[in-house]
Amino acid sequence: MNPAPVEIPSSPTQESMWWMQHRAPRRDAYNLTWRMRVAGIDAGTLRRAWHLVTERHEALRTSFSRRDDTVVQEVRPAVESELAEVCWDTVPPLPAGGRTRGAGPADAGALLDSLAGQWHARPFELDAAPLARAALVRAADRQELWVTAHHTVLDGWALHLVVEDLERAYLAVRDRGPDVAADEVFDGPPVTHRAFAERARGPLRSAERAFWPLRLAGTRAAALAPDPAGGADAGGPGSGEVLRHRQPPAVTTAVAACARRAGCTAFAVQLAALRAVLALGGARGRTALGVMVANRSTPEDLRRVGYCGNVLLSADEVSPAESFDAVVARARDGLWESLPYQHIGFADAVADLSPGDRTALGSGPEIVITHHGSIGSGLSLGGRPARLLPSPSTSARCQVLISLFEDDAGTVVEVEYDTRRLSRSTVRALLDDLDRVLAASAEAGGTLDRLSVTSRAAARDTAPAAEARSTGAGAAADDGMLGVWREILGVEVGAEDDFFQLGGRSLQVLSLIATVEDRTGSRIDVADWLDRPTPARLARLVAEQAPGHAPGGEAPPTAPVAADPEAVPPDAEPGGGPRWLSTGSPGGPHLHLVHGAGVGRLPYRSLVAALPPHWRVSVSEDDGSCGADLAAMADRYARTLQAGTGLPDVLGGWSMGGLLAHAVAVRLRQAGHRPPPLLLLDAPPPDHGHDYAVTDFGSFAEAVLRGAGAHALCPDVLRTATPERAGTEMLTALLRAAGHDARPDSLAARWELHRRHHAAMAGYRDAEPVDSPALAVAADLPDVLVRRWDTWCTGGLSAERLDTDHYGMLRDPHARRLAALAAGLLPAVAGAAGSAGRSG
Known about the structure:
With 840 residues, the chain is α/β, with parallel strands linked by helices. It is built from 29 helices and 26 strands. Helix content is 39%, strand content 17%.
């Protein structure tokens, strides 16, 4: 029995991310991925090292559960750490339809860019530890390590600590062997997140409660003006892109000179420059920016592995008539004065503001800036440098997130932006404006109005009552909507009352939104409602979801990726009976097919389409009731044929399906029937002798990729200790990089089916010959195995070979040839054979 997890409190920020994750359109919004360029890393050594690091840090064994109105962390004593290994000895091209534009025929960078984006985007289930995964990927001589964690368990500072421990563990395993113990690797126990979370949940003192409302009164959120026609790369909800920019050496020199004059950090200068650009671009009055801080104020916090970060609101009013040094001085003072209050979360910071001020600030800042400093730099793995690459994130948590990194060559600016509202050229213009303002700061004196910028910005508009009157949202907040609010909050409610001003808590948001959705059938994006958390606003969002509503000004949703049915498992139906793929005409020829290994009816769709329309086609699928026993499957399929659709004119199958079709024919003969002719499509004979029980995840992944037509992406190595999790995550990423839709849970189900079917083939022992005529059509099946069918089909065996592979034989044009061959098995329907032949 596995030991029960230990429950500890979650911090308010973790709790907030938990319920936002459950309501956000993009459930990868809080994924954090470090993509690192490495060299010479051995996967086995790294896998053991990752396991040691997972054992060491509670955060890597943590999940979250709801307990009434709170969220708790559940720390497990042990979990299966996840490390996927993917290798191509030569760089494969991305298949046509892949998601990276402009990829060359063999471009390692384009391939890994696409794959890293898909790997990052797979959401975590917050109730299932671990909330972290890793992958070692190599394309020819380019090797990368990807570590992805959910932000509830790690922030950037903590991830840096984890990677440093990973280096220690890797070197220890490499030098001392895989049995090295954790206490031989690490110096002392880690600093856990427990005490921090307990402290963060403590009540705020009156002085703490008073600080932010005083600072933020009369403040509006600053934002860039959206592009008039929407972003050039507009996508669905939360669509984002990341740009990287290195500030020129002259800018680095100017920042240092300005920081010396003002007696402040370089970050205060960068923050002031952002303020100046936005003010010059049109964001006038007192405006707020988000400042993401590490929130690690003690030496112990600096060694703590967990999520400690927080987003502060930094407010100021910048006049073009003042000097840049004056803006820098206020940025410096504001950062220092807020230092004792940086632990206060956004919800608590704005809780005591007026409803109008809360509306002006919205659910969070539109523009956020953070200084990572040396986080992510100076890393190594295996004794060699590990270089941090641009984030593969494609989800925008705000309009613009600006991250500053320092390395030996200067400052790198990484910008994650919302492509629904901003174009790439707009973001590049912002970066150019920042460089221009910073370069001008090298010399003291002069006012901001001597500078020009191309960026256009504004402060958030207010007036919720005016919006309610113009849209009718206030009227839509009827007694039913107000009644739901009264149920949740237990107080009287008006149409324009603020949820949090009425005493609402973060966990009650989930109850409110879920109840409204249950009663109205509408799906609500909670982030839209948090901008103005009133019954009127919620009623308006419900109305916008009503059938026939066509909201104006919204970017069109991203077109879904076309799904290749062979890339995902079939929806097996209960009962194990035949399913009709084509009902044809009454009395028409009847072809019955049996499923292949790890698949159902879907691979046969092209063959069915190629047959003449009067043919009837049925299929047997596995519902799991027979386990890994091929004889039991054949018994069941034979019984259902006799009791249901009747005996077919032709019986066949592809791969394992051909082996099963032969076993069904044996059982029909034993029941006193004359077995129909057999169509054996690249099917191994009963005495094939291969040990399918040892099939691994790599062979399964190859089968899925080849079946989806993405054979170019088949890795030379795909290995993982947890195929149902890390393996299916990587396989999902590969399929999506090739332009196919896929889900890890579906692939995990298909992996289980694949294993069971191959075990069934390996254990099959009671085969008998059957006196049916048979046609063996081969693609990958060797001639020696084709000839062995002569022993098992004593009614006469014919053979054909198609110039394709195991999977291509079921696609056109080869499917049309198979249709003609199937019809040719029945002399009594020669006319149908001619029709089928003409269709080919």
